[in-house]
Amino acid sequence: MSQPFQDDESAQTDRLPEQVEPTHDDLGRPAEAPTTEAPTTGAPTAGGDAEERAGEKAAAWKEQAVGTAAHLADRLREKAGRAAELARDRTPDPVLDKAGRAAAQVRDTAAQAGQLAAERAPDRLREQAATAAAAARANRAPLLAGAAVLVAALFLLRSRGHK
Questions:
Q1: Does residue 134 sit in the same domain as residue 156?
Q2: Average pLDDT over residues 42-69
Q3: Where does this protein have compositionally biased stretches of type Basic and acidic residues (predicted)?
């Protein structure tokens, strides 16, 4: 059998314990005894050096983690886009045509219902309905995609029920 795929992120994750050990050693080392006089030159003490190094390492790890998270988020977006494209490509044309017709019928029925409701609804309700309609118009693509998925699912369920 082949060896499982190991990308750069998992390789970096495997090396994290090796990077953590020296820092644990640095933090576990006791600080030198403080002098009786305060430093006048502003130079850091030995304990300050360890704290400073630990802070620098923590900042570097944080930066690395943020970069890795951003990279993984980009890869996830790419894979989701490829999956959506693959689903569109594999959906048969008759299903897409029926979904388009069904969406048109839903739009017509909704328009008729909207006209009827507009004639009988109070003003405040009309304003809210206008806001909802504007939001639906602004997001037509997701609504049509959802309708297509719903119709495809109904066809699949129907075909399985006949077997």
A1: yes
A2: 78
A3: 15-29, 50-60
* Calpha distance 157→163 (Å, rounded): 10
- Cβ neighbourhood burial of 102 (10 Å; 0-12, 13-18, 19+): middle
Question: Whole-prediction pTM value?
Answer: 0.30
For the chain, the straight-line distance linking the first and the last C-alpha, in angstroms and rounded, comes to 38
Residues near 88 by beta carbon (within 8 Å), at least 6 away in sequence: none
Q: Is the dihedral of CA 48, 49, 53, 54 positive or negative?
A: negative
Q: Report the C-alpha gap between 49 and 160 in whole angstroms.
A: 70
Q: Are residues 74 and 100 in the same domain?
A: no
Strand (E) or helix (H) holding 130: helix 123-138
| Together in a domain, 108 and 132 | yes
> Using 50, 70 and 90 to split pLDDT, how confident is the model at 106?
very high
